[in-house]
C-alpha cells in the first residue's frame, strides 16, 4: 500500500489573511462596549441581499459569536444590544473557505440609534494557521488567460511551484510546498473532483470545469485543519457560481488563427494553418425571488491545425525487391504510404511529408470540446437550504497518423446534492452526496487485416507500438457529513466521508503484435529477429473504499488568540478486482499466490493529529497575526498503481531466433510454440510448461523460469 506521511511546521509573521479549508465560509468576532468590556447576549444578524439569505445568533458570555457554513458572497451585518446603538456593516465579502473575523464596538445609546458602515473589510484572520490563497471572481474575470483553464491560476497561490515543462499551468504541471502533483486533492463544491485513476485531470482536458462556471477557488498548501484530507498535499477546492435575485448573464467568443500568431526565432518562414475558436455563454437568476435560483453555463472549443510530419517509407525499388523475394510481406509493404514525386534519399527509403502522401493528402489534427453546468439552489426556510449541481465536459481529439488515426475521447462528469440545516444558532449540519466520473478512451488505431507493427528498420515505424486502446473509466461515489456545534469559547466540528472508488480500466484492450527485423536484407528475406504478441487485456473492475472522519475544537482563548486542536482518521481499503481476474506474484507465496490473496496488508493506524495557533498581539493593534501549526497527513496513492495483478492475466508471448531460427511473417504457425515456451515474465503461466519440468531442453527450462512456474 502506498502511504505518504508528511509533517509541517509553520511560523509566519504576516498581515495577509490566511483562509480555512472548507467549501463555504465562516464569520466570527467579539462585541464590546466603548471601554472594551464584552457584551454578552448581543444579537448578530447576517443577510445576503442577493439571495435573501438570513442567519442570526447571540454572543456568548465572553461576547463572542461564530457563524459557520455561510455561502460565499456579500453580506450586511447588524449587531444590536439593549442600551447600545445598533451597528450595521454593509458589503462584507466572504470568500471560499474563509474564516473571517469582524469585531464590533457598540456605543452606549438606545436601540433606535443606528451606525452604518459601508464597504466593510474584515480584519486580519485571527483564527487559522493555514497557508492558503483564494483566486476570486474579479481575478477570474479580469486576468488574461490563454486557453481559459482555471487551473492555470493556481500559480497565483502561495506555495505553488511550476514544473517548468512549457505546457502551461494545468493540473499536471503545478505542485505545492515541495510535494508532488500526485499529493494534490481536488474537490468541486466539496465533492471529489480528481482524475480517479490519478489525482490530476488528463492534460488534454481544457474545460473539465468551465472558467465561467467558477465563482472562486481556494488552495490550502500547508498546515490545514483536521477537516481536510484524503491526500498528503495541497487541498484545492473549486466553488461553482450560483444565481441570485437579479438576472445576470453574458457571452463570449475568442478566435485565433495562424495570421494572429507570431513566428518564433527558430520557426519556419510560414506558420502552419491554425483555426481555434472558443465560445460560450451563461445565465443566472431567480426562479422564485428569495427562494429558488438557477445558474447555467456552456462553453465550447474547436480547433483544427495542419501537421506535416516527415515519414520514411520503403522506396519504390525496395518495395519491388521485397515483394519479389518474399511475397508474404506484400501486405506489410503495401500498408506504407507511397511517395508521389519526392526523390528517394537512398535505395532503401524515401522521405514523405503529409502533403505528398497519396493515401492522406493532408493531415488535419482536430479537437472538439463542449462543457456545460447547471446549478439549482433552494432556500426552503432560513434554517434549511439545498442545492444541486451537475457538470459535464465532452472532448474528442483526432490525430491522423501514418497508416492509422488516433482518437482520444475524454468525458468528465461531476454532480452533487447538498442539504444544510440549522438546528439552532449553535448547531449546523450539512450533508452531501456526490458523483465524480472520469471517462478516458485513447485509441491509437490499428492496422488493417491484422498487420503487426514493424520495427528495427530504417523507415518509420508502421503501426502503434505503444498501448492499444487505453480505457480508463473511473467513478467515485461520495457521502460527506459535517456538524458544527458552538459552545461558549469552543467551536466543535465533527465530520465523516465515505468515498467508493470504481475504476474500470485496461492498459491494452486490443491485442498488440510487434515484429522486429534487424537489417534491410533480413527484411527482404523475411527473416524476423523476434516477435512480441501481447494479448488483449479485459477491462478490470478495480474497487476500493476510503473511510475518513475527524473531530476538532477551535478554542477562542482570547479575542486575539485562537487554538485549533484536531484529530483525523483515514482508512483506505485494499484494492481488488471485483471478479477475481488477477495473478498476484509475491515472494511470500513462493511465486504466484492462491486466488483471493490480498494485494497488500491494509493500514489501520492512519491517525493524523493537527494543531494550529493564531495570535494577534494587542501591542500590534490587530494588524499582524502570528501563526504556527503542526500536522500529520496521509495519502492513498494513485489508484492505478494497484493494477499490475490484473494486468498480469493477459498473455504476453515472445519468440526470437534463439527459439525459432526460421521465424518469419506471417506468425500464425508459431502461435502454438509461443504459448508453450514464449511466455514473458509476470504474465499467465503456460499450461504446457508445468513447474515440475524445469529440467529438459534449454529453451523449455528458460521459459519456465521466466514465467515463474513456482506454484
Taking all Cα atoms into account, the compactness measure Rg is 32 Å
**What structural category arises from helix and sheet content?**
mainly beta
Number of helices: 7
| Span of the ends, CA to CA | 24 Å
Largest sheet: 15 strands, antiparallel
Helix content: under 10%
Mean pLDDT: 83
Look at the structure and name the CATH superfamily of the largest domain. TonB-dependent receptor, beta-barrel domain
The count of domains is 4
Q: Which architecture of the largest domain per CATH?
A: Beta Barrel
- Number of E-state strands: 39
CATH fold naming of the largest domain: Maltoporin, Chain A
- Relative strand content: over 45%
CATH class of the largest domain: Mainly Beta
Stretches where pLDDT is under 50 for at least 5 consecutive residues are 1-21, 341-346, 352-362, 683-711
Rough outline: elongated
What does this structure look like?
This protein is mainly β and 711 residues long. It is built from seven helices and 39 strands. The chain is 6% helix and 45% strand. The strands form eight sheets. The chain has a 15-stranded antiparallel β-sheet that branches. The chain folds into four domains: 20-123, Carboxypeptidase-like, regulatory domain (Immunoglobulin-like, Sandwich), CATH 2.60.40; 133-258 and 277-305 and 364-646, Maltoporin, Chain A; 311-356, no CATH class; 648-706, no CATH class.
Amino acid at each position: 500500500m502506498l502511504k505518504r506521511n508528511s509533517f509541517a511546521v509553520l511560523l509566519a509573521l504576516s498581515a495577509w489573511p490566511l483562509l480555512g479549508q472548507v467549501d463555504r465560509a465562516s464569520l466570527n468576532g467579539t462585541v464590546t462596549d466603548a471601554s472594551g468590556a464584552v457584551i454578552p447576549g448581543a444579537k448578530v444578524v447576517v443577510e445576503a441581499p442577493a439571495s435573501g439569505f438570513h442567519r442570526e445568533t447571540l454572543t456568548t458570555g465572553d461576547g463572542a459569536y461564530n457563524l459557520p457554513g455561510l455561502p460565499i458572497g456579500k453580506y450586511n451585518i447588524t449587531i444590536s444590544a439593549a442600551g447600545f446603538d445598533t451597528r450595521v456593516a454593509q458589503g462584507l465579502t466572504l470568500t471560499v473557505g474563509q474564516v473571517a473575523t469582524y469585531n464590533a464596538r457598540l456605543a452606549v445609546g438606545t436601540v433606535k440609534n443606528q451606525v452604518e458602515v459601508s464597504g466593510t473589510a474584515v480584519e486580519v484572520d485571527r483564527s487559522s494557521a493555514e497557508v492558503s490563497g483564494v483566486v476570486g471572481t474579479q481575478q477570474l474575470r479580469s486576468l488574461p488567460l490563454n486557453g481559459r483553464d482555471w487551473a492555470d491560476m493556481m500559480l497565483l497561490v502561495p506555495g505553488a511551484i511550476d514544473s517548468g515543462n512549457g505546457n502551461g499551468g494545468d493540473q499536471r504541471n503545478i505542485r505545492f510546498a515541495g510535494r508532488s502533483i500526485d499529493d494534490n486533492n481536488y474537490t468541486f463544491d466539496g465533492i471529489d473532483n480528481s482524475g480517479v485513476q490519478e489525482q490530476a485531470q488528463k492534460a488534454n482536458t481544457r474545460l473539465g470545469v468551465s472558467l465561467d462556471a467558477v465563482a472562486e477557488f481556494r488552495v490550502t498548501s500547508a498546515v490545514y485543519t483536521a477537516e481536510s484530507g484524503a491526500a498528503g498535499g495541497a487541498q484545492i477546492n473549486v466553488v461553482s457560481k450560483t444565481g441570485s435575485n437579479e438576472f445576470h448573464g453574458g457571452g463570449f467568443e475568442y478566435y485565433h488563427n495562424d495570421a494572429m500568431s507570431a513566428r518564433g526565432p527558430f520557426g519556419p518562414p510560414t506558420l502552419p494553418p491554425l483555426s481555434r475558436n472558443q465560445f460560450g455563454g451563461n445565465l443566472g437568476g431567480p426562479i422564485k425571488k428569495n427562494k429558488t435560483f438557477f445558474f447555467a453555463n456552456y462553453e465550447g472549443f474547436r480547433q483544427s491545425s495542419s501537421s506535416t510530419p516527415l515519414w520514411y517509407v520503403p522506396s519504390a525499388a525496395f518495395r519491388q525487391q521485397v515483394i519479389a523475394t518474399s511475397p508474404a510481406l506484400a501486405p506489410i509493404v503495401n500498408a506504407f504510404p507511397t511517395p508521389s514525386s519526392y526523390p528517394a534519399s537512398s535505395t532503401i527509403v524515401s522521405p514523405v511529408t503529409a502533403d505528398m502522401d497519396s493515401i492522406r493528402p493532408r493531415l488535419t489534427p482536430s479537437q472538439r470540446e463542449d462543457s456545460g453546468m447547471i446549478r439549482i439552489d433552494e432556500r426552503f426556510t432560513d434554517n434549511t437550504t439545498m442545492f444541486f449541481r451537475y457538470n459535464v465536459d465532452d472532448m474528442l481529439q483526432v490525430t491522423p497518423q501514418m497508416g492509422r488515426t488516433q482518437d482520444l475521447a475524454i468525458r468528465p462528469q461531476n454532480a452533487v446534492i447538498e442539504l444544510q440545516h440549522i438546528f439552532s444558532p449553535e448547531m449546523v449540519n450539512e450533508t452531501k452526496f456526490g458523483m465524480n466520473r472520469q471517462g478516458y478512451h485513447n485509441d491509437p488505431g490499428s492496422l488493417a487485416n491484422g498487420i503487426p507493427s514493424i520495427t528495427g528498420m530504417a523507415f518509420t515505424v508502421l503501426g502503434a507500438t505503444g498501448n492499444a486502446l487505453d480505457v480508463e473509466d473511473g467513478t467515485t461515489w461520495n457521502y460527506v457529513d459535517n456538524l458544527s456545534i458552538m459552545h461558549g469559547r469552543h467551536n466543535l466540528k465533527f465530520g465523516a466521508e465515505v468515498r467508493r472508488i470504481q475504476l474500470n480500466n485496461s492498459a491494452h484492450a486490443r491485442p498488440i503484435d510487434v515484429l522486429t527485423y534487424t537489417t534491410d536484407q533480413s527484411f527482404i528475406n523475411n527473416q524476423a529477429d523476434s516477435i512480441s504478441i501481447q494479448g488483449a487485456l479485459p477491462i478490470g473492475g478495480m474497487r476500493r473504499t476510503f473511510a475518513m472522519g475527524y473531530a476538532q475544537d477551535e478554542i477562542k482563548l482570547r479575542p486575539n488568540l485562537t487554538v485549533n486542536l484536531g484529530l483525523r482518521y483515514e482508512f483506505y481499503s485494499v484494492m481488488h478486482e471485483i471478479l477475481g481476474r488477477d495473478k498476484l506474484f509475491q515472494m511470500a507465496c513462493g511465486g504466484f499466490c492462491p486466488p483471493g490473496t490480498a494485494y497488500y496488508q491494509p493500514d489501520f493506524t492512519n491517525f493524523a493529529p493537527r494543531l494550529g495557533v493564531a495570535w494577534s498581539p494587542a501591542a500590534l493593534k490587530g494588524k499582524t497575526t502570528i501563526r504556527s501549526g503542526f500536522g500529520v497527513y496521509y495519502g492513498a496513492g494513485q489508484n492505478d498503481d494497484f493494477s499490475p495483478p490484473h494486468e498480469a492475466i493477459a498473455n504476453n508471448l515472445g519468440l526470437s531466433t534463439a527459439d525459432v531460427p526460421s521465424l518469419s511473417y506471417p506468425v500464425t504457425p508459431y502461435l502454438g510454440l509461443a504459448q508453450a515456451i514464449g511466455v514473458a515474465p509476470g504474465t499467465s503461466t503456460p499450461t504446457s510448461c508445468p513447474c515440475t519440468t524445469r529440467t529438459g531442453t534449454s529453451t523449455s527450462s528458460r521459459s519456465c523460469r521466466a514465467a515463474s512456474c513456482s506454484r
